[in-house]
Amino acid sequence: MSRIAVVGATGLIGRHLVASLVQRGDVVIALSRSGHSLEGATAVRWDAARDQWPAQAHEVDAVVNLAGEPIGPARWTSSKRRRILESRLVTTSAIARVIASGGPTTLINASAVGFYGDVQTVVDESAPAGTDFLADVCRQWEAAALVAADRGRVVVVRTGIVLAPEGGAFPPLLRLARLGVLGPLGNGRQWVPWIHIDDQVAALQHCLETNSLAGPVNLVAPSPVRQREFAHELARAVNRPSWLPAPSFGVKMALGASASMILQGQHVTPRALLDSGFQFAHPTVDAAFQSLL
Questions:
Q1: Whole-angstrom Cα distance, residue 148 to residue 152?
Q2: Rounded Cα gap, residues 161 and 200, in angstroms
Q3: Sign of the dihedral defined by the CA atoms of residues 70, 73, 77, 81, in that order
Q4: Half-sphere exposure (Cβ direction) of 213: Cα atoms closer than 13 Å
């Protein structure tokens, strides 16, 4: 049994992770700005910009930090960009200081495959950062976490698109598929680095338990697909067509700069996870969709 603090515990991934940790018998301190209760966990209201590290979390063995302003889809105004970056840096820097000053010795810190920018060739954790806005956010975010690496084990988990039935990207995509209007976005050839919520949670727990893992770890399924195929498989799963395209200019008009999240992609492989012995429960999109539906 371990004592684990989960920061950003009331978000989509956080809720699933807390439930899984509690079920296996861990003592979980669930930190969030709202302080909303989660079954089986000790809920603590914590805002890194204003509050000291809470006393309830002083004796934990590890911290999983999932906190951050939602990225989209939404227009990236200057204020939205500032919130995206600052929400990650402020929280992560505060946790890194706690670890560096003698707190818990393991930090699992969120990042994203946006670190790589728009890449259509296969990349693993050794690839350099991209040059766009999201890549720069991820680079600074990871650097803030790795400050704690002088004292503890730090894993930065570069997560792809998490597919969950009740939130995130999957419900709106499913609605479009059921209406028969989910088709290629732009040219449809961009890679979709996805992961099922069950595998996301299992991979986070694997990172907690596997002392040989440190530094960047890609949390994506081992079989990425192009967006055209992703749309086709989801439409097929609900017995609908998937031919109607959304041209690039229309997506850009609707979303502005944040359209890059949809029109660009990353062909990412989970090399570190696979090399450490992790096994995916949902390695293909058709299996993932059947599970989610």
A1: 6
A2: 10
A3: positive
A4: 29
Classify residue 284 as left (phi > 0), alpha (psi -120 to 50) or beta.
beta
> Which residue in the block uniquely carries the two structure tokens 């939602």?
70
- The CA distance from 181 to 220, in Å, is 26
Rounded-to-10 torsion of CA 80, 204, 273, 96:
60
Parallel, antiparallel, or unpaired for β 215-219 and 167-168? unpaired
Q: What is the DSSP letter of 72?
A: -
Three-state DSSP class for residue 17:
helix
Domain boundaries, the chain: 3-227+256-292
CA–CA dist 22, 25 (Å, integer): 5
Across the beta sheet with 42-45, the strand order is 42-45, 27-32, 3-7, 62-65, 106-112, 153-159, 215-219
Cis peptide bond prior to 193, omega within 30° of 0: no
Structure tokens that stand for 74 in this block: 């939404």
Sign of CA dihedral 71, 224, 205, 218: negative
Q: Which CATH class is domain 3-227+256-292?
A: alpha beta
Determine the length of the chain: 293
What is the number of H-type helices and E-type strands within the chain?
10, 14
Which helix (H) or strand (E) is 249 found in, with range? helix 248-255
Q: Does residue 245 contact residue 188 with C-beta atoms inside 8 Å?
A: yes
Task: Mention every residue, 6+ apart, whose C-beta is less than 8 A from residue 131.
Answer: 117
Bridge partners (DSSP) of residue 192 are: 225
Residue ranges of the chain whose pLDDT lies below 50: 252, 255, 257-259
Per-residue pLDDT tens digits for 18-49: 999 999 999 999 999 998 889 999 999 999 99
Which pTM does this prediction carry? 0.94
